[in-house]
Input
Amino acid sequence: MIRTPLRPLARILQARAKGENPDAIERENLRLRHEEQRDRARKRAESRLLVLGVFFFAAFAVIGGRMGVLANTEPSEPRASVAGADILAQRADIVDRKGRILATNFETHSLYAQPQQMIEPVKTAKALVRIFPDLKEERLLKDFTGKRKFLWIKKKISPEQLQSVHEIGEPGLLFGPREMRLYPNGNLAAHVMGGASFGREGVHAAEVIGVAGIEKFYDERLRDPAKGHEPLQLSLDLSIQTAIERVLFGGMKIMNAKGAAAVLLDVHTGEVISIASLPDFDPNNRPRPPTKGNPSDSPLFNRSVQGVYELGSTFKIFAAAQAIDLQLVNQNTVIDTSPPLKVGGRKIGEFKNKNYGVLTVADIIIQSSNRGTGRMALKIGPKRQKEFLKSMGFFDPTGLEIVEAKGGAPLLPKRWTDLSTVTISYGHGLSSSPLHLAAGYAAIANGGTRIRPTLLKRDKPQYGERVMSEQTAKTAQSMLRKVVTEGTASMGDVPGYAVAGKTGTADKPKERGGGYHKDKTITTFASMFPAHKPQYVLVVTFDEPVETSGKKPRRTAGWTAVPVAAEIIRRVAPLLGLRPQIEPPALSGITLTSN
Output
């Protein structure tokens, strides 16, 4: 900076020449210098004040904004989870084959307490017990007045309960947002859904995890954020599932049965259109697993998949089909079913000690002869029988997409003797689930190829390896149709919908000591429809049914499972898009003439 001299020489000489006092020039220059210095100091001070003002304004704005955010959010509390791990609460929906909701998410709240922030813990405890009767006032009061800093009160509360708690006015009671799993159809398809619960939990979120059924089987897929917008589409049909469960429940009550199961299967795609097990439960409020007693007595037990039973005479068609496929017999081959038939030191008897005499293979199936089926099985032999049943899927779990399916492995004999071969041919000595049976009958219905049941929607057939020739399958279908029109399943015929099938009544084995109950049975009707071109297989099973409309109690499948299956077909066939058809009359008795 260039400083101006206080006594410039030029002006001093001019002033002296004019006779003026040169000191006045110095005083004026000094005054101007002081004024300039004051102006610079003032500008510098004003700039500093402006910067300081802007700084304070920004600081107060940040503090005020943060205070507003904190005032509108819940206090941060320790989470019951791994440090630093985010809780993913979102879970994809589950829908039926037509896109209707089976499982979805519902926004609700949790209720927790900070006892140290409470003003009136005694009054609060009393008020909470009035809102939530299952809570204990003494326990709440002990927690509120103790040393605890954080306390869960309810993991899920309804909007009405939230409002009631809010009206208590206690600052120590706080709410956390929650996303819970909701099953809007209640008990419908409960064993397929299984249920969900909370995993890792925090104040601001909770992890929803599957605990059973398809929820657990596809847990990772349903929790995948990348697929959260894509619902999991099942093969189930909500309308058909509803109809089957209602009819099955009514049948179980009428037949005084302990339990019941039903499976409806598409024979070409393997899709499970409906699968039911009774008694059932509400997955919104899933009961705890039993800690004692027989697990099959629990409503959580899935009889269609986990229940492995001796399914009786429904197995006879497999022996006949294999014998025909091996060209050991044909449907018109005559077999003597008269007693005695003794295998491995054991006599093979008939239902009510009947003697059917000489029967064709078709009549053996129609009349359900144990000895006739046993003689065919002996021609087949243990080795070939084992190979055939294994190819049909009776040696392994079904692989259905629910976790319980792994526990439904068939029970096989330890030694596959000639006696085992005979008894298995008519459904004793090998225990399997109704779903196994449905898959086996589907192989007959679709022309001889194995299918694997699935709960996922398929758009095209899913044929597996061939287990019998197409002609053998057609012959088996024809024999099963005659069981309904002429044999033990006469109450299974449905006008307009030709039904083919086989009954099975098996004495229930004793839980202890071996042997069988004389007054407890497992009754099954395995059917396919329409019989002329099967598209669906339906298996209905009852546990300990008793039909009491007659003079004596009746426990056979023809009186219990068959009429219920017929009512199911009558109701669901139209829902499946099947039109009723009138079967052409038999040509017997018609004489052809010529002009």
About this structure: The chain has two domains: 94-233, 239-287+294-575.
